[in-house]
Write a structure and sequence with these properties.
alpha/beta; eight-stranded mixed sheet; globular
């Protein structure tokens, strides 16, 4: 049975928008894109080198998928993240996306919740969700998330899309681990009960 985990990079005030580059996501007039770049090099201090090996598939929302598909297939395979993303099965939850060019991608277009439940039943490893804020909120609301892996960077932006939104009911979390980089990023792993 697969474990579904959300892997998210956030500011202290919960912003997840535009982590990687200035033009990554300017929706809503967001002008702080690329805020995560100064902290990227230190993430290896809190992530085990074997971390990618447990991920058997990736699940994305449409917007995140399109951004990832426009970048990662064109990166050299000597980049461990590129090699893993390009070789690992990918699923994208979308009612509007039909044609995909990134090898190994399957579109989950109908009865999304049932498709994710089936995916969890058939996958043997970890199903990783990267970014995909709308998808994350839906997965949490439908009790499909097993684990949160949050990388909280020492930064307040005051604007931008936040990871968490309203839930039908509170969720208890079990703290599994805490680690810190020398730049002040906190890595938290929570089991979702």
């Amino acid at each position: 049975m697969g474990n579904l985990m959300l892997i998210e990079f956030l500011t202290v005030d919960g912003v997840m928008q535009g982590l990687g580059s200035p033009q990554e996501d300017t929706e809503g007039g967001f002008t702080h894109g690329g805020w995560g770049a100064p902290f990227a090099e230190s993430i290896h201090q809190v992530v085990a080198p074997s971390g990618l090996g447990n991920t058997s598939s990736y699940l994305f929302g449409r917007k995140t998928y399109e951004k990832m598909a426009a970048f990662w297939p064109f990166q050299p395979d000597d980049n461990p993240m590129a090699a893993h993303l390009n070789a690992t099965p990918k699923y994208v939850a979308s009612r509007t996306l039909h044609d995909v060019a990134w090898a190994g991608t399957t579109v989950l277009s109908s009865d999304f919740s049932a498709a994710v439940r089936e995916l969890k039943e058939t996958e043997a490893g970890e199903i990783a969700v990267l970014g995909s804020g709308n998808l994350c909120r839906q997965l949490l609301a439908e009790n499909l998330v097993d684990e949160l892996r949050l990388f909280i960077h020492p930064l307040l932006l005051g604007a931008g899309k936040r990871l968490f939104g309203e839930l039908p009911m509170p969720k208890n979390l079990e703290l599994k681990s805490v680690a810190q980089t020398d730049l002040g990023t906190i890595a938290l792993v929570y089991g979702v009960q």
